């Protein structure tokens, strides 16, 4: 398989061309022939023009790439090696929604042939690839895994907005359904991953490795958030505490904040869901999730308390939220906890404006029911900096004085302006 791909006798296909799939497809397309498949024809047309619908890549990233973008099954059928990179979200009850990965499995089941390979990159719970996805492929294709085709799992490690930790520079975990497939899959990924690959002993091990990467981060951030709540009661600045503690060589440098996005705020629920199916109720993981999911309400409560203390008139109060994306310097609003802050503030009848240099107003309206404000006022009771975009780095004390009332507060969740705000009340997590 590896040699056939390298000699361009066969093609590799990537199914799902979002934040994960498109960078993978383009990286492979610099070395071998690639088919980029997506069910959204509008996205396909944009990519044909060298435009990334996710606004992560620039036109030059498409240059010198041997890739065909399509939404056609007939074109997809030409591939011999399939990579699945579709989203794996949770529903409103935090239950894993496997619909995208199941639909992708159905798509593969319609086009896979004897001798083909399929590798899943979507984040799932241990066992999902072999117990949920492969059976769908087998049923629709009439083929058998390990006999007629080979399967594997290689968890994505794409970090939106990060130009340093890219696909080629991060060690890639790979796994296969047997020894032969593991080696072939590893060699294929070694084409594009300069940092090398780690061969996991099984597909389940690779799936579990991905899940705990983000679960570990989630728990550490939850600890920081809980410490922040405690230190706020003590009138201690959390970031000063972390700065002091961070002088010890083995102190882990995490920070408090809103935990959203499509990884850290989602992945732990896949693990706890599977654990529950097996009769075990996860305690530590869900405790961390509970803390992080409630931080938006905590921020809103703190803001409203300031308003009550200083003006007493909540219904006429105005709050500006700076930042609507799930993290800094990206346009991605999926599972943005800023929306929860807006919702919580509005539950107190506070007037809320939102601005963000990266987010799309129409997309926010469609997803969360609010858009971006076209004009920044000069009489806010509170300004909340929820996302530390680089565009905000030049803002200073004078700027915040100009847009707030004399009793105004600057709620700087990530500590961007620590020791820089002198003429307004300053608060951070």
Q: Secondary structure elements and their pairing?
A:
Blueprint: H1 2-6, E1 11-15, H2 21-29, E2 34-37, H3 41-48, E3 67-70, H4 73-76, E4 79-84, H5 99-111, E5 117-120, H6 128-141, E6 150-153, E7 172-176, H7 179-190, E8 197-199, H8 203-233, H9 238-245, H10 267-277, H11 284-293, H12 295-310, E9 318-322, H13 338-347, E10 351-355, H14 361-368, E11 380-385, H15 397-403, E12 404-412, E13 425-427
Parallel strand pairs: 1-2, 1-4, 2-3, 4-5, 5-6, 7-8, 9-10, 9-11, 11-12, 12-13
Antiparallel strand pairs: 6-7
Helix pairs in contact: 5-6, 8-10, 8-11, 12-13
Structure description:
The protein is of the alpha/beta class. The chain folds into 2 domains: 2-206, NAD(P)-binding Rossmann-like Domain (Rossmann fold); 296-427, 3-Layer(aba) Sandwich (Rossmann fold), CATH 3.40.50. Helix content is 39%, strand content 15%. The chain has helices spanning 2-6, 21-29, 41-48, 73-76, 99-111, 128-141, 179-190, 203-233, 238-245, 267-277, 284-293, 295-310, 338-347, 361-368, 397-403, and strands spanning 11-15, 34-37, 67-70, 79-84, 117-120, 150-153, 172-176, 197-199, 318-322, 351-355, 380-385, 404-412, 425-427. Strands 3-2-1-4-5-6-7-8 form an 8-stranded mixed sheet, with helices on both faces. Strand 9 (318-322), helix 13 (338-347) and strand 10 (351-355) form a beta-alpha-beta unit. Helix 5 (99-111) packs parallel to helix 6 (128-141) and helix 12 (295-310) crosses helix 13 (338-347). The longest helix is centred in the middle third of the chain and has 31 residues, at 203-233. The protein starts with a helix and ends with a strand. The model has no long low-confidence stretch (mean pLDDT 95).
């Amino acid at each position: 398989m590896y040699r056939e791909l390298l000699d361009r006798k066969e093609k590799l296909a990537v199914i799902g061309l979002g934040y994960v799939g498109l960078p993978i497809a383009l990286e492979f397309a610099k070395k071998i022939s690639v088919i980029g498949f997506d069910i959204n024809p509008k996205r396909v047309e944009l990519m044909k023009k060298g435009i990334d619908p996710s606004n992560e890549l620039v036109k030059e990233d498409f240059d010198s790439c041997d890739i065909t973008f399509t939404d056609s099954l007939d074109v997809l059928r030409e591939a011999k090696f399939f990579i699945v990179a579709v989203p794996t979200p949770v529903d409103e009850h935090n239950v894993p929604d496997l619909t995208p990965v199941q639909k992708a499995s159905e798509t593969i089941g319609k086009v896979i042939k004897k001798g083909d390979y399929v590798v899943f990159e979507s984040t799932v719970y241990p066992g999902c690839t072999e117990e949920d996805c492969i059976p769908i492929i087998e049923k629709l294709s009439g083929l058998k895994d390990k006999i007629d085709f080979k399967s594997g799992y290689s968890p994505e490690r794409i970090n939106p907005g990060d130009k340093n930790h890219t696909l080629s520079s991060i060690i890639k975990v790979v796994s296969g359904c047997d020894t032969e497939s593991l080696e072939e899959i590893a060699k294929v990924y070694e084409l594009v991953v300069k940092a090398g690959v780690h061969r996991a002993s099984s597909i389940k091990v690779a799936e579990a490795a991905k899940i705990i990467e983000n679960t570990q981060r989630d728990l550490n951030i939850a600890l920081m958030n809980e410490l922040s709540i405690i230190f706020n009661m003590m009138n201690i600045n959390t970031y000063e505490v972390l700065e002091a503690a961070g002088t010890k060589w083995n102190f882990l440098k995490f920070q408090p904040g809103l935990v959203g996005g499509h990884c850290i705020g989602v992945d732990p629920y896949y693990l706890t869901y599977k654990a529950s199916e097996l009769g075990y109720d996860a305690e530590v993981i869900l405790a961390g999730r509970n803390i992080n999911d409630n931080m938006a309400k905590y921020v809103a409560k703190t803001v409203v308390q300031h308003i009550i203390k200083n003006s007493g008139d909540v219904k006429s109060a105005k709050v500006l939220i700076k930042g609507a994306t799930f993290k800094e310097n990206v346009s991605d609003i999926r599972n943005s906890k800023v929306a929860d802050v807006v919702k919580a503030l509005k539950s107190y009848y506070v007037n809320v404006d939102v601005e963000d240099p990266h987010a799309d107003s129409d997309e926010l309206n469609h997803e969360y029911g609010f858009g971006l404000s076209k004009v920044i006022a000069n009489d806010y009771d509170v300004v909340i900096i929820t996302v530390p975009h680089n565009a905000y780095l030049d803002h200073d004390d004078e700027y915040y004085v100009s847009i707030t009332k004399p009793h105004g507060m600057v709620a700087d969740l990530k500590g961007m302006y620590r020791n820089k705000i002198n003429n307004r009340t300053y608060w951070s997590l």
